């Protein structure tokens, strides 16, 4: 199934199912779920009905279907009870240790994860307001999953069963502030503004063979101001999403609507495939040339992210295309 949320004047939007070709949508409706959060909270009860609606839509039998325009979509889950972001790509972690001059992750058996801002996810075509271009504005392309309720102490196998949706995320970062907050040992506040989501959230079965080992086996293409910046593959995670969900649930029950991110998609052959964030490119330049030369983003810059299957077909998530702007004075 493929889900999107359309504006209706409410904070959570109106839940719709999107056709396989991405051209039409069908309101899920109050009988099934008015919002994606409502669907996640009653997933086992409403999933059969939602699947029937999806099948009817894809077969062309939904008389009340409407055209779907991803440019007008909200984030699929416009606000979440919880957003936990991992750092599951070893090559990215090693490069960040270089750029921020800190020790690489000491325990390879334990995933890195922090709790971020979850009360909003920015729409995929919305401008991104930030306070200062001097803060080192950076995009971070990553995959994420959304769970229903996960019991405390869930095993990897149990955690996998609670992954209901897969999403594409741009996890914005302010790099000048990040090392300052990291040194406090308390985590990020200023360095991590709201993240963005691509317009369509999909059930894992929609990915077919590209959902394997609890990983998204697809390329993430990132363009900065119209030029290709990276096309890293999602496969080489050191920890799969089953492990990340189980890690998050060790001492707490995860509520339905918990979003868990992979961290910046990165590959060991980063010099060939490029990067999914600017900080990683700068770290590569430091290794190769002795100094970073790629600047961070300026106001007016644009970033685009989309996915591609290994056979070159477009991925199902749609496109994130955003511009960074100066936040309005309060």
Describe the structure.
By secondary structure, the protein is an alpha+beta fold. Helix content is 22%, strand content 26%. It contains 9 helices and 20 strands. The strands form 5 sheets. The chain has a 6-stranded mixed beta sheet with strand order 6-5-18-9-10-12. It has a 5-stranded antiparallel beta sheet with strand order 4-3-2-1-13. A 5-stranded mixed beta sheet has the order 7-20-19-16-17, with no helix packed on it. The radius of gyration is 19 Å and the shape is globular. The chain starts with a strand and ends with a strand. The model has no long low-confidence stretch (mean pLDDT 94).
Short summary:
This protein is of the alpha+beta class and about 325 residues long.
């Amino acid at each position: 199934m493929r889900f999107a949320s359309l504006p209706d004047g409410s904070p959570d939007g109106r839940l719709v199912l999107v056709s396989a070709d991405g051209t039409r949508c069908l309101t899920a409706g109050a009988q099934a779920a008015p919002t994606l959060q409502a669907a996640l909270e009653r997933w086992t009860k409403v999933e059969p009905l939602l699947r029937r609606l999806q099948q009817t839509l894809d077969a062309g039998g939904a008389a009340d279907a409407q055209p779907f325009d991803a440019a007008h979509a909200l984030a699929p889950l416009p606000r979440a009870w919880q957003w936990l972001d991992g750092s599951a790509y070893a090559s990215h972690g090693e490069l960040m240790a270089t750029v921020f001059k800190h020790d690489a992750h000491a325990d390879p058996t334990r995933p890195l994860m922090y709790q971020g801002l979850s009360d909003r996810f920015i729409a995929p075509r919305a401008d991104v307001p930030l306070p200062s271009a001097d803060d080192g504005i950076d995009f971070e392309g990553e995959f994420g999953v959304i769970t229903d309720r996960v019991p405390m102490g869930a095993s990897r196998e149990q955690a996998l069963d609670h992954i209901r949706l897969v999403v594409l995320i741009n996890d914005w970062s302010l790099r000048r502030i990040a090392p300052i907050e990291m040194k406090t040992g308390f985590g990020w506040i200023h360095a991590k503004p709201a993240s963005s989501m691509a317009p369509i959230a999909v059930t894992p079965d929609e990915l077919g063979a590209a959902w394997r080992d609890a990983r998204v086996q697809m390329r993430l293409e990132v363009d900065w101001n119209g030029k290709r910046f990276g096309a890293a593959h999602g496969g080489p995670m050191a920890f799969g999403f089953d492990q990340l969900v189980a890690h998050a649930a060790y001492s707490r029950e995860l509520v339905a609507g918990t979003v868990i991110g992979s961290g910046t998609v990165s590959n060991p052959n980063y010099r060939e495939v490029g990067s999914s964030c600017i900080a990683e490119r700068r770290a590569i330049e430091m290794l190769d040339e002795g100094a970073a030369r790629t600047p961070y983003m300026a106001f007016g810059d644009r970033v685009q992210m989309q996915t591609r299957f290994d056979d070159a077909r477009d991925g199902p998530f749609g496109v994130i295309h955003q511009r960074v702007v100066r936040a309005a004075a309060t």
